[in-house]
Amino acid sequence: MAAADALAKVHARIDEEFDRHVERIQEYLRQPSVAITGEGIPETAELTASLIKDLGGWARVVKTRSHPLVLGGLKGASDHKLLRYDMYDVQPVDPVDEWVVPPWSAEIRGDRIIARGAQNNKGPLRAYFNALETILDVEGELPCSIDFIIEGEEEIGSHALTAYVNEHREDFLGYEQMDGWFAYQPTPTSPPPIECGFKGCVFFELVAKAPMDLHSMMAAVVDNPAWRLVWALDSMRDASDRVAVEGFYDDVVPPTEEERANLPKLASYLDLPRQWGNIERLRGEARRSPEEMLEELFFRPSPINVQGLTSGWQGNGCKTITPGEAVAKIDIRTVARQDGRKLLEAIRRHLEVRGFGDLEIRAVDVTPWSRSPMDSTGVRAAAQACRDLGWEPMIVPTDPGTGPSYLFTNNPPLHLSEFFGGLGHGGSIHAPNEYFLLEGVRLFEKGAVNYLHHWADLASQSD
Q1: Distance between CA atoms of 199 and 428, rounded to whole angstroms?
Q2: CA 114 from centroid of its chain's CA atoms
């Protein structure tokens, strides 16, 4: 493994230059890059490419039909090469009046940098470049080679990334692994998670229709689309709150004995709803053990989540109508081996059998799952980096959320292994007052240094 005294020298330089590192993160965060509106996107793409070039690497901005990609790379001491996927785009800042500082000011308040993108993911991306620069300053070269693909529309579906990777798959065959070192501690004191994949996601709209809005005096003799939609949704869960769609769980692979034994170590994930949303009671906690809830969170599909419901008059006061349309926006987080389109067909069959064959399924979007071994070289290197700095990590089978890494891990001929996680805490992503703790920055940068050295050592052992 990497020599402790060599790593200590790099860490000491991070401490010496830390104020400058923070200033560089602030500068990057002050450049808006809102995916959904396009504000600042071209400028941020060029800025991101320049940061790679400033490190002595190559970089280019690739135009697409939507937002540009940034490709780049740095040659290291070893020919072993990592591919780092990242993002430079962010969510809008609304509601602006709930921020304690202007959202693009990147001010330091107390122990944190506050800005849109501070945690997700412009702050950590700039901190990662800080770590690389420090290694280069102290050691003269990186321990391994790293290439980058950095997108500008992760927040709106990664459509340009998907098209580019699918059109250029052969260009990504020379990499050994995905670099997934990210600042991902849920709280400042939580064990750092190292996640080995992502759930997939199936999104669709379920729509009940009538020809048009109608005066409600006729409600006694016409079907109401809102009620038909509610009844259809109700039919999809049984009295025990389990999904009642036949075939919904057919391809689900249960956890192994080892994976099930690991579940209690992941109990801090059950604290996240309370920490993020002040939710005091978890779904089914009165009748399920924590281990059962964790098994569903990581190893089963989410139970047909309704993310939005719309129908009829939404303005002030009364408008006496029977609405002409009712819409439910639905997502399902899928697990390894599940096919999202097969699930949609099961839902269609369920609706037809239950007498709701007239309901429309539209606006379908399917993102596949990804899953990598829990003992890969990347996982072992990241875990050792955490331990070097006094933290025992959680090895997590999959992130309950969804990301585009399947493009590289589960997209033949591409089968790179991945992980996602590491040291450093921030929060309030997608919300007002998003932040990155200053000590989280320091931990993240030092951990990145150790992770890259450990990965290079482990990769060289396979020669």
Answers
A1: 22
A2: 20
